[in-house]
Amino acid sequence: MVCVACSLWRTGYRCITRHSTPLLKLRHLSVARQRTILNAIKVLLKWCQYEGINLEERFKSGDHLTELEVMRLLDFCAWDADTHDKLLSGVKLLSKAYQQVSNQSQRIHAIRDYVSFLYVELARCQNKTQVAKAVSNTINSYTPKTKKYTKNSVIALSDEQLTTITEKLMPDHPENPWKDPSIQLRNLLIFSVLYETGMRRGELAGLYVDDVKGNEISIYRRHNNPLLAAE
After folding, report:
1. Among 58-62, 112-116, 225-229, which is the least confidently predicted range?
2. Residue of 29, 160, 189, 211 with fewest CB within 10 Å of its CB?
3. DSSP one-letter code for 126
4. What torsion, rounded to 10 degrees, do the Cα atoms 178, 184, 187, 188 define?
């Protein structure tokens, strides 16, 4: 924690340690999380340097970031350190030269919280809490939405349902919906093969008698097979 803060101090970002309350609140977080937050603040201060904004003086006067500035800040958060350094050095970059990072949202959230704290800490206006909250809401509204990938829940027949289906598909079962014995046997075989092998219905429909050898079933993709082509 101290080493990270000192490292950022040496880069010239004194704003981080001058207002040390956020650092004290980071003590219960892991070192990796502390580093992420402090590096996000470093990005904020690089952006201020790039935009020519004295954030502390701005906040002391009661003014906050404008909506346009918020949008430019969020764009800046999407780029990596090499892109930042090139921009600060005055290099004009082509659109494809902007290298993006994968943790843009994490940066934005950390910056949002720090900016809110800093404004409340420095501003002298009476409605500073409301102003800070309004800007935080603006930042939230422009933050790119990250898609959360969740593992699909498995939908399957229960053991009870499988038992019921198997029983009613048996030939001569009174509740078997098919009356022809040969169709009853065919449908029981279809259900059993699909259930036991997990093959697709198109693969089942394309099976030849010679594809079944003992306990093994081979699936072949045959050219000009209308059943497989339709699938």
Report:
1. 225-229
2. 160
3. T
4. 130
pLDDT of 22 higher than 90: no
- Residue 108 token pair: 């934005």
In the block, residue with structure tokens 């977080």: 29
> Residue 40 region, left (φ>0) first, then alpha (ψ -120 to 50), else beta?
alpha
- Specify the 3-state DSSP secondary structure of 216: strand
**Radius of gyration of the chain measured on its C-alpha atoms:** 32
Cα gap 34→51, rounded to integer Å: 26
Give the long-range contacts of residues 45-48, CB within 8 A, separation 24 or more. Answer: 45/13, 45/15, 45/16, 46/76, 46/84, 46/88, 47/72, 47/73, 47/76, 47/77
Report yes or no: 103 and 40 within 8 Å, Cβ to Cβ: no
Per the DSSP assignment, residues forming a β-bridge with 217 are 212
